[in-house]
Amino acid sequence: MPVTKKRVAAESSDPTSSQQPPRTPLEAGLARALAAYARHMLAGERTVPNFAARLDGPHVLVDVHAPDGLQHLRRRVSAYLGLCGDIWGLSQPTAARAALPSLVATLSSHPDGGAHEWHNVYELEADADWYEGLEAVADVLVPGAPDEAVLLLRRLYDVDGRFGPDRTLYSRGLRTRKAPAAIATAVAARSPVTPESDWARGGSPQAAIKRVVPFAASASAAERLAVAARIADALPHLSLSNHLTFFAIVDKALPALLQDGDGAVHEVALAVAQNLGMKLLYRGAYPEAKRLLDLVIPHHVALPESLRARWECRLYLDACAGTADLDAAEEDWTRAAALDAPTDPSMVGRCMFWAGDVTDRRGVALARVARALALRAEGGDPCKDRKPAKQAPTADERARLLARASALSGAALQTASPRIEQDLERARVEGEASGRGFQADEYAARAKVREASGDLAGALSDYEAARQLSIAAGLSWQIDHHGEPIRRLRARLGQASSGGVPPSFDPPWLLDAARTGEERERAAAAWFAQPWREFPATPQAAGDRPLAYVLLRDLVAHSAALWKIAETDGLDLGDRLAFAARALVVLDRWCERRDASWLESVLDDSHEVAFFGQACAVDKKSAKERESLLAWLKGLVLADPLDEAAVLRGLDSVRWTSLAAAFAAKVDHYDPLRDLFDAVRRAGFDGDALALVLRAYQDLLKNDWSDFGKPRGAAAKWVPHGRALAQLDARKLAPALIAWTRAQQAIPGYYGLPRLACKWLWPLYHAWSEAHCPDFLAEVSKGRLDNGKALSKTQKAARRECLEWFAERA
Question: Residue 580 burial (CB < 10 Å; 0-12/13-18/19+)?
């Protein structure tokens, strides 16, 4: 249902048109708002219907001319989106009106549950007809219903979303507006719900709404509107927060905010339910999502989308409950199907969570539910924010859930297969099929179900098909989607080597409690002997290093673009997907190795570095300049076998020198933990001692903790690992740790050379050496390890806390 950009017919929306009787100021303003609404929120060309309107206190009574006669409406004026949707809905023919009584495209500016505002809402709110029309309606309200006019304008100008002492009123685009004099102060006033002090406070979305929820039951409608608006403003920032915690807070406020049944507060609260409902759906929180969707559907909010979302929730919940009629949810899908065509995109534009049309949506949703049921069968939950159930499913329940998951995943693939084949062919012909984006869901879901059911070979086949689709999409960052389960299943099926000492530095293996001291020592000796910081003198000397891996990986990641460039230059590189499939056989041998994956960032865009001396836009180079790169790539496409030697064979001394220079420039950033391993090993410690040191530093590298002077709060969990260092010889360990810390302080980061974070001193508290630590701490106290940078107030407090902690040790 593409949204038209054409203006609504002027002869009906223009209040001065000679074809219409003179409109009252109320009707003229409402007509302008209706025209803007249709322009941005409804499909097709539309003429503002004939109508008559009059006020009844805060309500507007509208008589709408429909093809089958006059239709009547009574609504609060401040619920202006629903009001416009209702008028347009009543103007439809009888059958259309019965199917969709109100054309409410959305109440939320984020109808897909994503973090980005829907552009149609932005365009509507920037349309002069929209805000000038509603301002005219507010002017008419002032004499008889000033409170309703205040609510309308506070919502229109987003007064409760503004911060700072300036109480000027603005429309979208920061156009200055003026409220009627009689209500100007009430419209612009800061609400007690959102005091000025709140805007300077940080914190999570949960913290922000906790402060406003107590006002949800306020007798003041303006305060309740501020609560609803503040919750709506917090929702786009929810992505990294616990969605269920947020829902639990909102759930306490919604009943009070919805109690009016109409008006601005009710409509903004429904917008919250719409937005949060979709967020919870994509988070896998099906019970909570359905509760919110049940609130918005009776009001016909984004009805086709809302029905399809609830259909997905019901599929999952009915299967979990063992409902007798597992197809009962189809009534929602069938009802939505009557409102749009299977080839339509979403009525709210392209959703970030799926691409394509409604048919694609069905396949993706079926796959999502199948995967969720497989997780449930294994004792997990599709919502990562929910604590796992204490009791695992019984054998019968597990079998029932997996049977339903299998049926749904099969249906998903059956639905998606035509599109999948079409996109794979398109990728072969055009080089990419990026429209599918994330949509390898169907194969990945069936793989998950098959693995849970014990069909490992079938699961491996499906994961490989899913990865092929990700590569077909031509998006460089998802070439190894599903790679981890592929390698894991190959190991379980005996298709990959396992056991023995890893060929390169592998902290998880070393720290595994199952390791013996002898195994750790053997690994430490082997890894320490490797010259990982030195670049091989020649390509032939790089056979056991991951350089071929990085080069080949970058070629696969950028293959869609390279194939297009080659076509422009008249070079046929052949089947990109076939090349990628062969390359992945090589890449899978290296992917799980730390020295390989960490080298990716050291030699980013390595193919460009090798042939042009630096990362660059290959398509901006001349055909002559990129000829050698494409010739090398063509050689790899034809190579038989395609292996590490074939990748390195085409690199002459100039290309190799360019790679060596790039490696030398960033080698200090390669692997700090391995630098620490080498420093401690050089000091004479064995494998078990190395494990203790690495375990202590792993958490320090992983967590910020920059505001802590000593391990407390979230950092308290580090203390047991730090204490373990006390059992080692501090006279040897302390100088090694100090030397490593000095070296790290000499490595520039994004903002240049760093200040010393206190956490890097914590290990010395337990590995204390009187011969080394006091002098080092004296340097720290004088700021000599801060690279000439001043500390902030918070950093000074943390430094002071840290040094006092060390002083107490003595």
Answer: buried
